[in-house]
Amino acid sequence: FRPVFLGTGPDGALYVADMYRATIEHPDYLPEEIRKRTDFKSGSDLGRIWRVKAERAPAPRRPLERRPGAPDPGARTTSGPGPAPAPVVAGIDFAALLTDLSATNSWRRDTAFRLIRQSGDAAAMVGPMRTGAGAARTARTASVFLHALAMFGGLDDPSLRSALNSPHPEVREAALRLGAPMLARSVETATIAASRARDEQPRVRFQAALSLGALVEVAPNLSIPALAQVAARDGRDRWFRTAVLSSVHGQERAFVAALLSQAPQPDDPILPMLSDLGGLLGRTVPEDAHAEVFAAVFSGPGTDMGRALALLGPFTDGASRSTNIAFDLVATAAGANAASKWQVLKEATLGSFDQPGAAQSQRLAAVRLSRQLDPTETEPRVLRLLRIETDPVLLDAAIRCLADPRRPERARSLLEETNWNPMPIRTRQMVIAALSERSEFHPLMLEALENQTVPLALVGPEQRTQLRRTRDGGIQQRFTKLLGSSVTGDRRKAFQDAKTALALKGDGTNGRVVFRRACTSCHRLDQEGVAVGPDLFEIRNQSKETILLHLVIPEAEIAPNFAQYACETRDGRTVSGLLVSDGASGVVLRQAQGLTATIPRADVARLEITPLSMMPQELEKTMSLQELADLLAHLKGEQ
Fold first, then answer.
1. How far apart are CA 549 and CA 625, in angstroms?
2. Does residue 172 sit in helix, strand or coil?
3. Which of 68, 497, 601, 635 has the fewest CB atoms lying closer than 10 Å?
4. In whole angstroms, what is the distance from residue 580 CA to residue 595 CA?
5. HSE-up (13 A, CA, CB side) for residue 384
6. Of the given ranges (7-21, 88-102, 548-562), which has the lowest mean pLDDT?
7. Angle, CA of 614, 620 and 625, to the nearest 5°
8. Distance from CA of residue 424 to its chain's centroid?
9. Burial zone of 458 (CB within 10 Å; 0-12 exposed, 13-18 middle, 19+ buried)
10. Residue 85 has what pLDDT?
């Protein structure tokens, strides 16, 4: 029994199509000896259709039929060359079709819907459909009539308002979705739609956040406060944040004021929304309008500094990509009130560095905002953070605070021995990844590699490629010579050399320590590590020799969904990682330690797949043969 399709019939029974094939495996995936004895086409001309009905099924209603003399609904007439016209349906009992629109049997509903659509006389059904929608007793029936009215152009304001006030959340949700293009036609309808932002059902609020975008330009006084209410209630959920931000286009600064006017709450759900909004504003607001953002943030007699920090930190991060902001001047331009509050916020930002117990979002915003503060005050704090912090998101922000392409010399402090040596190995790898992305930092990387402050073994395959592609021809030659001499050309020989570890007795307990040091930034095993690459639980089914092969030669086998991509941006960066999404809004790449890099579509110059694995080359050189044997024992589950 190999079911390949099922559906409901007009009699309410379940019909199951059963493919009857003796062998469904592809020949390529069977051993050769079995292939010789297998008839792969056996049963290809057979099959069954099962009809499954309830033991006490009601008597089936007769299927929808044509009246005597009516044309066949499936018949087509042709009159010369060209495509055949649409089917002609006549003589249909429209009263029966209207009844079937509210049937519990999905086949009858769908068929009635189709026949009305095909009839070409749907306009005659609009009046009865409105009546049917108003009289519907169940959410399913009301939703079917609502969709029919929308498709046939019969969804008027009274019908839409009635659906928006329906006691059924499914109907309210459908009304918001289907009626979005009509909301601006009536103040009464728009007001009811805006009130759905306070609906008790989260799916209705979510749809309201999407649909209220239709009112933002024509009725911002209704839509913006309503969207702020959704953010105040559901801002912890990233999909709600995305829905809200998709609807505030063109009214971002008004939305800032509406958000900040919401009453503060414990574990404030507005903070993540402000963070997302700040990044958006930083990328989209022109430099001459930055003062307006400050005025919106610091307007009013009182300002919540936590909220201001949540917005201005990402705002700094986004704006710094393309412009050299001087926030002190911006704050002054926004007025004396904004300038004085900006000074208070700067002091709070410096204090956040020394509060490990503070919320991660607050510390992250403080690190980002520190780009705009006096480097003599912030740099020691950032460097101390890089020695003690373990959160990869916070570490990434701290590194990029110093790795500022507008002032590349500030990144030198990251590579000075007194700062570099105390950093954990993972933090060092993140520093190398950040400095390899942009040509502005390549002279510093070359200097650190040549004087051996940075070991060559820590430079991954993608970073090596980025460094070899640097824009400066002279530096490029030095990188090619330096990096070329550090890689053994024959990885197969390296594998043969590493096989010596197979003869050693491994200690799984020590191997777990090695695993934590070398592998957990990208792999999970026994709920330990970060799931970037494949989960390693199933690796215990493989031999130690096979595991060693993948460790020494990462490119020996790369699954399609773990292929590495490189994205070149228009401002000269090269960002690499596993492709999460490539859509109209931009490209999202997953990187080591679970970090994600989002590149807006307008910034993407080129996106290409690379032949390299994300696993570092020559990983075996970072451990002794005994440590390698211990790691293999741990991966195999040995104690």
1. 14
2. helix
3. 68
4. 12
5. 10
6. 88-102
7. 155
8. 29
9. middle
10. 40
Neighbours of 571 (CB within 10 A): 11
Alpha-carbon distance of 227 to 286, in angstroms, equals 24
What is the pLDDT at residue 68? 45
Length of the chain: 639
Residue 114: both structure tokens together = 């189709």
Mark 330-344 as b/e (b = at least 16 C-beta within 10 Å).
bbebbeebbbebbee
Which of 483, 423, 492 lies closest to 457, judged by CA?
Answer: 483
214: exposed, middle or buried (Cβ count in 10 Å: 0-12, 13-18, 19+): buried
Query: Is 61's pLDDT higher than 70?
Result: no
CB burial of residue 15 (10 Å; 0-12, 13-18, 19+):
middle
171-190 average pLDDT score:
94
CB atoms within 10 A of CB 283: 17
Q: Which of 90, 95, 84, 88 is nearest to 66 (CA)?
A: 90
Q: What is the pLDDT of residues 367-415, one digit of tens each?
A: 888 887 888 888 999 999 999 888 888 899 899 889 988 788 889 999 9
Residue pair 446/482 in contact (Cβ under 8 Å)? The answer is: yes
**Residue type for position 142:** A
Two structure tokens written together for 346: 């700067």
Q: Is the pLDDT of residue 76 over 60?
A: no
In three state form, how does the secondary structure of 599-624 look?
EEHHHEEEEEECCCCCCCCCHHHHCC
Find the helix or strand (DSSP H, E) in which 50 lies: strand 47-52
Q: Could you tell me the CA-to-CA distances from 5 to 17, 24, 324, 498 in Å, in that order?
A: 5, 16, 60, 51
pLDDT in tens, 463-496: 888 888 888 888 888 888 888 644 445 677 888 8
Residue 364 and residue 401 in contact, taking contact as beta carbons nearer than 8 Å? no
Q: Got the DSSP string for 505-520?
A: PP-HHHHHHHHHHHTT
Cut 0.85: pTM above it = no
Mention every residue, 6+ apart, whose C-beta is less than 8 A from residue 374. Answer: none
CA distance 493 to 501: 14
Average pLDDT over residues 533-558: 82
Pairwise CA distance, residues 51 & 492, whole Å: 59
For residues 299 and 312, give the distance between their C-alpha atoms in angstroms, rounded to a whole number. Answer: 14
Residue 179: predicted pLDDT: 94
Which tens digit of pLDDT belongs to each residue from 585-635?
Answer: 788 998 887 888 888 888 899 898 888 788 877 788 888 999 999 999 999
Give a three-class secondary structure readout of 281-337: HHHHCCHHHHHHHHHHHHCCCCCCHHHHHHHHHHHHHHHCCCCCCCHHHHHHHCCHH
Q: Please give the span between the terminal C-alpha atoms of the chain, in angstroms, as a whole number.
A: 44
Handedness of CA 504, 508, 513, 515 (dihedral sign): positive
